[in-house]
């Protein structure tokens, strides 16, 4: 269990970490911020590339609103869940390091915290095959967290979101299952869309979005997970697909993904 970064900022809520697997590596840690009062809602929020859930949680809960209140004080009934991406091999970084005169010194630095590998964030269509294994594994992991949280509060009171690569992973998690489209909301910050050209060719038909996404990711629906989520979330069903409110935002000064790219991402996502 990690100590609270600022106990005065978050009141009686606690920052703690637990793992969803037996692996005790940093890549498996999930940081939990408990609600100050009665637990009514849950937010599952994914960090960006080369970041960690605990670091993002500390940043969120160190910050204050204009009225001086912390996030926990503004939303006292929300449980916050910050998963951490596994440490994954970066093909592009390995390629760059192999050409360096410091290749031996940099050995091991090609393994970084990321939800999936990507050759070039500015041009994610390059070597798209690198993204699939990580996306498959990360989506499965996030779905297990959604499943776990759906046993505590109804699915429609859970919100999924992320920033940068975390948002890209979260949007695919959302769209890859029609059940997840029954979530209470989605928050996306400063992101980009993997397989954008393929996504643009998908017709805006809510009934088939999940199957198209599964085709892109070369996956199939996990029936057991679906059944558990349905049984734990009364009133949420296939007919609720497409009702999830979505908030997307992007900074004007993002040096990684410029705003004009986000405009396309926002438009395509709104079609869904």
TrEMBL record:
All copies of domain Phospholipase/carboxylesterase/thioesterase, residue ranges: 31-203
Disordered: region residues: 1-28
Polar residues composition bias: residue spans: 1-18
GO MF, one annotated term: palmitoyl-(protein) hydrolase activity
Pfam family, one: Abhydrolase_2
Family matches, as InterPro entries: AB_hydrolase_fold, LYPA1-2/EST-like, PLipase/COase/thioEstase
GO cellular component, one term: cytoplasm
PANTHER family reported for this sequence: LYSOPHOSPHOLIPASE-RELATED, PHOSPHOLIPASE_CARBOXYLESTERASE_THIOESTERASE DOMAIN-CONTAINING PROTEIN
Family the UniProt entry places it in: Belongs to the AB hydrolase superfamily. AB hydrolase 2 family.
Protein known as: Phospholipase/carboxylesterase/thioesterase domain-containing protein
Organism: Coleophoma crateriformis
